[in-house]
Design brief:
about 475 residues, alpha+beta, Methyltransferase, Cobalt-precorrin-4 Transmethylase, Domain 2, Heat Shock Protein 90, 4 domains, six-stranded mixed beta sheet, four-stranded mixed beta sheet, 21 strands, about 30% helix, Schlafen_AlbA_2_dom_sf, Putative DNA binding domain-containing protein, WH_DNA-bd_sf, WH-like_DNA-bd_sf
Length: about 475
């Protein structure tokens, strides 16, 4: 098993005091497990050898060197290796809901991906603010009971966890969805047949508009309006089907000079946006719901709730801090939520691979997050372009080198290009990019636009046929 947001492995030679930072980091993030007896390369070295520390050594360090005592449990995992008995130490750490966990010398760590990262003074302050509120997803729903849950969905969840032999109650209690014999908000949102009975705000609305603006009154331009209000996994699946049904297809010019059929947006980008909205929205905010608005030129995903204090628009690509960690962790099991903001980073990468503008995150007001994906539909060619065949034949000849094809591929999808953009695409200097562009002008493929060679607004386009 690889190290990640919820898992770390260390040799039993690790000093007990060095284990403390990992325990603190897990407790301050979303919880996790530390296994002692596995080397960094993944080899099992066990704990039964001279120089290995005992589980009691690690327990003592955790008890003595951590302030705010996190909820920690310990287990032995026995195994046979080449006929010899050995064992691993498993240390499970629960997330600390309402207090910040520190070391005895006041150091604070946070689990970020596969690292336990020491926090700066300002980061510690932000964590303290965030820890001041109990997680809404852990609130108990007194009037709910296990018969409210979708048995088929629970069985699917257990299959993902490889624990189909356990009862529903055992799994719910082990994953924190049932506490003190009562279901939590997270359990209702994830598994109830009708979550909106308890939480009317727990729904997603998909709107398809004709054109690039929202019109009202007699000019209202909504052509599709669907609402999904089931358990979270079903909302995700239904929203995926709804968006897919409305996507158009475009011709895309690859760097090999051949045309390919591609969807309006990269699927990963919009699907990850939906999953993130459902997983991380503020469900305590009862006045609004998730909305997906699809226009001719863009797709917007609106999610209620302010960003957690530790997350900003500037650092959200690199900072992970789940508002609903139990829900997020369950969606990891379903294969939908990525760790360390891998998903957000990949949205940027996928849009770039399609030669589309970067995704745009904004806060339309303090209690909402908006993701906008633009499709450049005005400058992209639709499938029925009659000139595709001739242009493809021309590009796959030796007339153009690899960098020239990259530039032409970008132009086909975006309409115009500057020297700066060309240099980014071919990963060479501005001077080299300028030389390539001028060569394409000489080949009567591109047209230069500008008032002079020093015009800062100059650009190039494909010559119209």
């Amino acid at each position: 098993m690889h190290e990640g947001q919820y898992f770390d492995r260390k040799s039993a030679r690790m000093k007990p005091k060095d284990a403390v930072k990992h325990i603190i980091a897990f407790a301050n993030a979303d919880g996790g497990s530390l296994v002692i007896g596995i080397e960094d390369n993944g080899d099992l070295s066990g704990t039964n050898y001279q120089g290995a520390h005992t589980l009691e050594d690690y327990k003592l360090a955790i008890q003595q060197d951590i302030l705010g005592q996190p909820c920690v449990s310990y287990e032995y995992i026995d195994y046979l290796m080449e006929g010899q008995e050995d064992r691993l130490f498993l240390i499970r750490v629960e997330l600390s809901v309402d207090r910040l966990i520190k070391s005895r010398n006041e150091e604070v760590y946070l689990r970020i991906g596969d690292k336990s990262v020491k926090q700066t003074y300002s980061q510690i302050r932000q964590l303290e603010y965030a820890k001041g509120e109990r997680l809404f997803e852990d609130n108990l729903v007194a009037e709910a009971n296990i018969t409210d849950l979708d048995e088929q969905l629970l069985n699917e969840y257990k299959r993902h966890l490889n624990c189909s032999d356990l009862s529903h109650r055992q799994v719910l209690e082990a994953r924190g969805f049932m506490q003190q014999g009562q279901l939590t908000v997270a359990a209702i949102l994830m598994f109830a047949e009708n979550p909106s009975y308890y939480f009317p705000q727990a729904r997603l609305r998909f709107l398809r508009y004709e054109g690039a603006r929202r019109e009202t009154g007699v000019r209202m331009n909504i052509v599709k309006d669907q609402t999904f209000d089931g358990p979270i996994p079903e909302i995700i699946r239904q929203a995926q089907v709804a968006v897919n049904a409305q996507l158009r297809e475009f011709q895309f010019l690859g760097e090999d000079g051949r045309f390919k059929i591609v969807p309006e947006y990269p699927e990963f980008a919009w699907f990850e946006g939906i999953v993130n909205a459902v997983a991380h929205r503020d469900y305590s905010f009862r006045g609004d719901y998730i909305r997906i608005s699809m226009f001719d030129d863009r797709l917007e995903i609106f999610s209620p709730g302010s960003l957690p204090n530790i997350v900003t628009l500037d650092n959200m690509r690199y900072t992970r801090y789940a508002r609903n960690p139990r829900i997020a962790r369950a969606l990891v099991s379903f294969g939908w939520v990525r760790e360390l903001n891998e998903g957000v980073n990949r949205i940027y990468d996928e849009m770039a691979d399609f030669y589309l503008n970067e995704p745009e995150y904004s806060q339309p007001h303090p209690h909402a997050l908006l993701l906008k994906l633009e499709n450049n539909y005005l400058s992209r060619q639709m499938r029925m372009d009659d000139r595709v065949g001739d242009l493809e034949k021309k590009l796959i000849t030796d007339e153009f080198n690899e960098n020239e094809r990259k530039i032409l591929a970008y132009l086909y999808g975006n309409g115009r290009i500057t020297v700066k953009k060309a240099s980014e695409i071919i990963e060479m200097s501005d001077a080299t990019a300028r030389k390539l562009l001028r060569a394409l002008v000489d080949k009567e493929v591109l047209c230069w636009h500008g008032n002079s060679k020093r015009d800062p607004r100059q650009y190039y386009t494909l010559i119209s046929e």
